[in-house]
Every structure is written in C-alpha cells, then in structure tokens.
Design a protein that fits this description.
mainly alpha; 72% helix
Length: 270
C-alpha cells in the first residue's frame, strides 16, 4: 500500500492533467460552464428550504439553524454533491476509459482518484457562496471552529478515495455495481443529517439500536464537521467523530487493498 501511494505521488502531474481534462470535457459545450456546479446544489437547497423551512412553518425542529436554514441546507448539500458525484463517476472511471488505461503507463489508481479530486474542485468553487450566506445570516465565527473544515475535507477525501477505488475495480467485473450504487446513494442521502439536524434523530422515537447504528455512519461525523464551521455547537460528539475517523481510514486502506487484489483481473477484463 505504501508503494501504491508513492507511485501515485510520482505520477501526480498525470493525475493533475486527468483532472483538468475531465473538468474541461464535462463543461466544454456548456455556456455557463463551472457555474452549473453551483446551480444544481443551490436549486436543491431552494426546494428543500421551501418544503422543510417554509411549509413546515415554525421551524422548531431545526434547532440552532432555525433562523438560518438556507445556510444549514447548502452546507450539507455542497458536501453531499461532492460525495454523490464522486461515487457515481468513480464507479465508471475504469470502464469508461479502458483504452486510455491499457495504453498509459501510470498507476491505475489515478483514474478513480481523479474523479474524486475533480468533484472536490467543484466543492471548493462553492465555498464563496457559503461564506456569503454565513455573512448574511450572521454565522461567521473566527476561532477553532474553522479547523473543522480541513478535518472534514481530509476525512471525506480519504473515505471517497477508498470507496472510489473499491467500486471502480468491482464495477469492471460486476456491471450491476453502478445500478446498486444509485439506489445506495439515495438511501445514504436520507441516512445522513443533510436536510435535517442530527438532534432530530437523537430526540426521535426510533429504537435505541437504530440510533446507535445511525451514529456509526462515517458521513454523520463528517457532515457535522462541515457544519461546525458555521455552527460551533454542531461539533460531533465522541462516537460519530471516532466513527468518521476510523471509518474513513478503514475504507481508504480497504479500497486500496481490494483495488490491488483485483487489478490483474480488471486489466484482463478491460
């Protein structure tokens, strides 16, 4: 695994070129270009704000986000768009570039990793929007809470890299993986505190074992860290924080191991 990381690092220029190429191809025939990476999450945020922020009326279920629900929503949706797009595109990263993979002398890990980094670039493009919203709602806090953002990004990058390596290799050998992941990401969206606060789950009438299982979802702690930047009180408790750290590291190492094990069969299939 150490040699794999060193090999990818030695080919970082090729990785950078792949990321730039993917971004260019994605927006080459679009008039608005990169602005589309902002329009979709903002449109989703508007829809959920109308449904849960306006139609529900009182907003008592929103806790600390009662008076700034749009910021609460967009923070979660931006982080989710990175997650969802990276998983979706990385799943087909090998099958969609078979000729390039079999001719370029670079570590094959750079292809799914490039998709994760490309979607991260789109996430970064949305940070100014979050800052403007935070300023509007008076949620700009300058303190240790700002350290939550690099921690959230690091953990999410590790988690998504591991998942991308695992799914991209498995999808070559089992083409049903793509369809299964479309369903899985839909379920994961509602199993993560994106459009609702975590306190709503903790105060619900769900069985205790369901609440415990919910907190072991690594994305719960990661999304809480994203929100801590604007809502310091949202810093994750011990269980979800540890689950996020352990889960992200385990998925990264597991994804690397599976990718290496399946690589010979993947190249033969391609």
């Amino acid at each position: 695994m150490t040699s794999s990381i060193a090999e990818v690092w030695s080919h970082r220029n090729a990785l950078r070129l792949l990321v730039r190429r993917d971004l260019a191809v994605k927006y080459q025939q679009s008039v608005l270009g990169y602005i589309w990476s902002l329009i979709e999450p903002l449109a989703l945020g508007l829809i959920y704000w109308i449904v849960f922020g306006v139609l529900y009326g009182t907003g008592d279920h929103l806790g600390s986000a009662k008076d700034s629900y749009p910021l609460f929503l967009i923070t979660g949706i931006f982080a989710w768009m990175w997650t969802n797009s990276a998983i979706s595109e990385a799943t087909s990263a090998l099958t969609g570039q078979a000729r390039l993979i079999t001719t370029m002398r670079v570590p094959r890990e750079v292809f799914p990793l490039g998709r994760v980094i490309g979607r991260f670039a789109e996430y970064v493009a949305g940070l100014p929007v979050l800052i403007l919203l935070a300023a509007y709602f008076g949620k700009l806090h300058f303190g240790l809470n700002l350290l939550a953002l690099p921690l959230a990004v690091l953990l999410q990058m590790m988690l998504l890299t591991g998942v991308a390596l695992f799914l991209s290799a498995l999808n070559v050998l089992l083409r049903d993986v793509g369809r299964m992941m479309r369903l899985a990401t839909r379920l994961l969206f509602y199993a993560t505190p994106i459009i609702y606060p975590l306190t709503l789950v903790e105060q619900s009438d769900l069985p205790g074992w369901v609440k415990s299982a919910y907190l072991f979802n690594p994305l719960v702690g990661i999304f809480q860290l994203h929100r801590t930047v604007w809502y310091p009180a949202e810093f994750p408790a011990t269980v979800p924080l540890i689950a996020s750290i352990v889960g992200s590291v385990a998925l990264l190492l597991g994804g690397m191991w599976v990718f290496r094990r399946l690589e010979p069969a993947v190249l033969k299939e391609l």
